[in-house]
Design brief:
It is a single chain. This protein is mostly helical. It has a domain at 12-82. It has 4 helices and 2 strands, in the order αααββα. A two-stranded antiparallel sheet has the order 1-2. α1 (12-25) runs antiparallel to α3 (59-69).
């Protein structure tokens, strides 16, 4: 089992090894759930994942890995990692019209 793409940390390999070993005996409730790797989960989805993580028997191993490796993306041990997707920018023309009160919907 290969760790996901990470920003390297000295103890990340050891933490990944511990998590991988724990995964040999226990399947976490997030296994196979694409929600945990979604680009832009809703607040409700994030709350659901946080609650699921809180009950997970692998929470400690997952948290140790996530803290050491700082994964580039995903939801790990009740916390979202990676940069959230940016919202579309409003054009200055639209912003100017809205600010001046001349924007009609």
């Amino acid at each position: 089992m290969t760790p996901p793409a990470v920003r390297a940390a000295p103890d990340a390999d050891a933490a990944w090894a511990a998590l991988a070993k724990a995964l040999e005996d226990t399947e976490p409730p997030c296994a196979g759930d694409d929600l945990f790797t979604a680009d832009s989960p809703s607040k409700d989805d994030q709350e659901f994942m946080r609650n699921l993580c809180a009950m997970c028997p692998l929470l400690a191993e997952c948290a140790s890995y996530a803290l050491a490796a700082k994964p580039a993306a995903g939801y790990w041990a009740g916390r979202r990692y990676g940069k959230p997707r940016a919202k579309p920018k409003t054009t200055s023309t639209t912003a100017d019209r809205t600010a001046s009160g001349t924007h009609h919907q």
